[in-house]
């Protein structure tokens, strides 16, 4: 389990990581670190389903 921070798009990620990218189960957070935008499976850094918790789907992950 790792945490990744994306300064350019102000997002945070906590979950499984392979080769420095989200891969496996994880949670994406908005910049406040509390509001979840996605929770589910990531493959090669991209969310695999549209299971948004709050807000719009970020396009620059």
What's the SSE blueprint?
Blueprint: E1 2-6, E2 11-18, E3 21-30, E4 36-43, E5 46-47
Antiparallel strand pairs: 1-2, 2-3, 3-4, 4-5
Can you describe what's shown?
With 61 residues, the chain is mostly beta strands. It has a domain at 2-41. The chain has strands at residues 2-6, 11-18, 21-30, 36-43, 46-47. It has a 5-stranded antiparallel sheet with strand order 1-2-3-4-5, with no helix packed on it. It is globular, with a radius of gyration of 10 Å. The mean pLDDT is 79.
At a glance:
The protein has no helices and 5 strands. By secondary structure, the protein is mostly beta strands. It has a domain at 2-41.
* Overall morphology: globular
**Helix/strand/pairing category:** mainly beta
> Got a strand count?
5
C-alpha Rg, in Å?
10 Å
- Through-space gap between termini: 18 Å
Low-confidence stretches: none
Helix share of residues?
A: under 10%
Order of helices and strands: EEEEE
**Percent of residues in β-strands:** over 45%
Helix run count: 0
In terms of quaternary structure, what is this? single chain
Strand order of the largest sheet: 1-2-3-4-5
Mean pLDDT across the residues is 79
Q: Please outline the major beta sheet.
A: 5 strands, antiparallel
Keywords:
single chain, 61 residues, mainly beta, repeat, MORN motif-containing protein, MORN
